[in-house]
What we know:
Layout: E1 15-16, E2 20-25, E3 32-41, E4 45-50, E5 59-64, E6 72-82, E7 87-94
Antiparallel strand pairs: 1-3, 2-3, 2-5, 3-4, 4-7, 5-6, 6-7
Amino acid sequence: MQEHTPHPPRRWARQPATVPISLMLEADPSKADDSAITVDISVRGASVRTNLALVRGEWVKVVGKGQYPRPIPALVAWVRKDESSHLTLAGLDFY
Length: 95
């Protein structure tokens, strides 16, 4: 089911960025997607494309695939289905 909610105006400008990441559900760390990627990113959040079925209001951990990966807690702000790839697009707010 596709959730359509109005997006509040962003306080931080996002820049297009395709960065490989891992996403883990806070409530169930066994549910993770090591093939997730960012679509765009800012200081306070990101849009991501993932195989996970995320839900608005759910907490996730974002882990960059770099030399010093450290999990960043994030709250799922919005979710929609990418009809062309059948993946989930989600907006995350970093905390």
